[in-house]
Amino acid sequence: MEDLFLIRIFGDGGKSLTTRMSALLAEVEADILDIGQSVIHNNLSLAMLVYIPNQKTDALLKIEEKLATVSEKFVFARVSSERYEKWVEKQGAPRYVLTLLARKIRASHMAAVTELISTDNLKVDGIKRLSGRVSRNSVNTSSKACFEFSIRGKPTQKFRENLIAISSKSQVDIALQEDGIYRRHRRLVAFDMDSTLIAAEVIDELGDLAGVGAQVKKITARAMAGELDFSDSLRRRVSLLQGLSESSLEKVASMMPLTEGVEQLFKILNRLGYKTAIISGGFTFFGDKLKSRLGIDHVYANELEIKENCLTGQVLGPIIGAQQKSEILQQIAARENISLEQTIAVGDGANDLPMLSASGLGIAFNAKPMVRKAANQSISTLGLDSLLYLMGIRDHELNTFLS
Fold first, then answer.
1. Catalytic residue among 192, 204, 348, 352
2. Which tens digit of pLDDT belongs to each residue from 323-357?
3. What is the pTM of this model?
4. Which contiguous run of DSSP H or E holds residue 377?
5. Where are the beta strands (DSSP E) in 308-369?
6. Residue 173 annotated to the active site
7. What structural domains and CATH numbers belong to the chain?
8. Active site residue 194
């Protein structure tokens, strides 16, 4: 007779079902081999995989009778030794975390993703909500919804491509990460500045003040899309700013709009002791302002040459372009004694791709289509603080942490 059993019970989350079930199994000296419990809207679902010694199998008839006293709804099933051993053998399978993010998670999002998981012969071990509860009576245009899937198996390249396709057409962000020790122990987060930490391209704003906005913006758009060499494009744009007063820099800095979620994100990162950095193709003048405002540890950007209180149209020193961004990230990590696998990099332009690729978790944020396609992860539907979800942090943890 088989001595392995899968027991599932369902009921009101207010009842001590787990305690009563454990006490019942203790009567027959059962070993608990696996357990899973969840509570959704005060309704509990509990599953236990148990071993009951052969000499106690006479008590099994009583167990089924007693289960009815624990819960009105239950399933009691035998598990063959063969099925159990196959389950044990699968414990070395690769594990991934798939994160679904949007203003609202719709059933169509869930259907598309779970169908894709099934088609790729992957298994979902668990799903949990990371976002907070949202009242149906509230009107919140910045609402957030996030579900995290624990997946067993090795995703194919086609699976990743299909996730990107679903994301592009369904207004939902989908991130897929290997579930290893580094995912839970990131230590350094590096950001691009323009159109990432701030919702603007500073050089375009300066171009407007200099009366050459249209020319500058055209070059910026092409550079961010990867159509122009970044260093050459930056020199061309800065040359158009020749003669602009130094006071214009202060004017633009005073109006820099932070991206949604930036202040909340840095409040959390700083409290948790993460090292943070700006690695930007923009300018140190504005990076230093953000460093002071947000408590950022490192700032690397380009320096505008100023003489007699006016911009000369030149950049001092070597320009920080795409490759330099990647190298700087690696230098900071080495200086801080942090593994690259423990780094996160966030950016929106083509010049950010080498940095994103070098980091343990590279995220294209509100990025151009070609950047989203090239990056491993992307966020386009939520604010920058949704990065915390990709780190596995739940809203209710933050509420407790910040109170």
1. 192
2. 999 999 999 999 999 999 999 999 999 999 999 99
3. 0.88
4. strand 377-379
5. 310-316, 343-347, 361-365
6. no
7. 4-89 (3.30.70.260), 93-179 (3.30.70.260), 188-402 (3.40.50.1000)
8. yes
